[in-house]
Design a protein that fits this description.
Protein name: L-type lectin-like domain-containing protein
Largest sheet: 9 strands, antiparallel
Distance between the termini: 98 Å
Strand content: 25-35%
Radius of gyration: 27 Å
GO biological process, one term: endoplasmic reticulum to Golgi vesicle-mediated transport
Number of strands: 19
Number of helices: 4
Shape: elongated
Pfam family, one: Lectin_leg-like
CATH architecture of the largest domain: Sandwich
Structural class: alpha+beta
Keywords: Disulfide bond, Glycoprotein, Golgi apparatus, Lectin, Membrane, Metal-binding, Signal, Transmembrane, Transmembrane helix
GO molecular function, one term: D-mannose binding
Bound molecules: calcium ion
């Protein structure tokens, strides 16, 4: 695993080793990156990035929301990304006047089919298609259970702020009241608010493996947050970031989002499999499991079995009725 500082130093080009020992080359892709001096952002047509809602740009940051109630803002790439393997480094800052747990709601980083759509998921639409990584700063579920005078068992408690990943296929809703627990792919606690030093989120997607790391302790070291294999994300989606405040608020600032292309050697079979991904899915996750060929066949088989059984029963009934008709006829004839 390479460290955050080395990534920053070798911003334009470097070679690193993947977890499984594969050598990878990294290239900064400027067209998918957002960094100072944020030239032309917000001016229609003159930048690769577009602002929406309450988001605004200064010389030092893109502020998704200010520290005021009921704000939502986002920034979206205009260009769909067709890279297969990539890593995204997000330099962000969450800060505000509110004391712990009296702030909210958090920010999200997106790689989705949809873009520029307002909604309830950290300012973005629900039922999204693709990947969402949430830096959730308000524990809705905990507050809900407290209100119902129910207690968490230690096994289920999550310490907030909490970083969480979710993959959506367009038909799955994000459960805001439960902080996305039902659809959580994985996550970790992350004390990201009101830090004196820089904070970074790192999302790497290589050979269907999704890795999320954080650098928030001011040590210039990445720490693991999530590592999930078998995440199938189509190509051609948009990168974006959004944030929302409610009754409670924070400044949600983006300093940069830098996208690196990773060059990975693939077998022919991997190459072919990659091209088949049309809808996001996650292996071994029931909500999002892809249909295999065998399962596709078996559902067809089930359909025809049911159809033929019904036809069979119908045929038996008809034959039975005809036979009964003949039998009662011949019985009547015997009496005359
Ligand atoms: Ca929350």
């Amino acid at each position: 695993m390479i460290s955050g500082s080395s990534l920053i130093l070798f911003a334009a080009f470097s070679v690193s080793l993947c977890d499984d020992g594969h050598e990878m080359e990294e290239f900064l892709k400027r067209e998918y990156s957002l960094s100072k001096p944020y030239q032309g952002i917000g001016v229609s047509g003159s930048s690769h990035w577009e602002l929406m809602g309450d988001a605004l740009v200064t010389t030092d940051y893109v502020r998704l929301t200010p520290d005021h109630q009921s704000k939502q803002g986002a920034v979206w790439s205009r260009i769909p990304c067709h890279l297969r393997d990539w890593e995204l480094q997000v330099h962000f800052k969450v800060h505000g006047q509110g004391k712990k747990n009296l702030n909210g709601d958090g920010l999200a980083v997106w790689y989705t089919q949809e873009r520029m759509q307002k909604g309830p998921v950290f300012g973005n639409r629900d039922f999204f298609t693709g990947l969402g990584v949430f830096v959730d700063t308000y524990p809705n579920e905990e507050k809900l259970l407290e209100a119902q005078r129910k207690r968490y068992t230690p096994r289920t408690q999550r310490i907030f702020p909490y970083v969480l990943a979710m993959v959506g296929n367009g038909s799955i809703s994000y459960d805001h009241e439960r902080d996305g627990r039902p659809t959580e792919l994985g996550g970790c606690s992350a004390m990201v608010r009101n830090l004196k030093h820089d904070s970074f989120l790192f999302i790497r997607y290589v050979r269907r493996r999704l890795t999320i790391m954080l650098d928030i302790d001011g040590q210039q070291e990445w720490r693991d947050c999530l590592d999930v294999p078998g995440v199938r994300l189509p190509q051609g989606y948009y990168f974006g970031a959004s944030a929302v405040t409610g009754d409670l608020s924070d400044n949600h600032d983006l300093i940069s989002m830098k996208l690196y292309q990773l060059t990975v050697l693939r077998s022919k079979q991997e190459d072919e499999e990659q091209q088949e991904v049309l809808v996001p899915s996650v292996d071994n996750m029931e909500l999002l499991r892809p249909l295999t060929d065998a399962e596709g066949m078996s559902s067809v088989t089930v359909f025809f079995s049911v159809l033929f059984s019904m036809l069979g029963v119908f045929l038996l009934l008809v034959v039975g009725l005809v036979l009964y008709g003949h039998w009662s006829e011949s019985r009547r004839k015997r009496f005359y």
